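Notebook entry, structure prediction.
Reason for the run: the old model in the group folder had no record of what sequence produced it. Starting over properly, with the input documented here first.
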Amino acid sequence: MVVFSQAVYAEGKYKCSENRQVYPDPRSMDQFKRGEWELRCLKCGGMIKVQPTDESRVNPANSFGISKYSQELISLTLGKGYTNHLPEVFNRARSKTVSL
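New structure, fully documented this time:
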């Protein structure tokens, strides 16, 4: 069993006021210095609302997230190569089991 990290999603999925799905970058240091904590749409500048994060896009924002995603890919690839020995693996949605 391999446990995956939400770090591979960074801020996750949001929806902007113009009804677009956005995956924002991490807040900048300048934004923190201005005391602006809320994320904004990079295209329209409007406020964005958090949405349930699915597995359609990963966006690791730092070396930890990149390393966790790499571990995930390695584990799933090796698992496929050992289908006779490892009949199932867990995917990122902790509650789902995937047969190989």
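Summary: The first helix runs from residue 29 to 33.
The old model has been moved to the deprecated folder.
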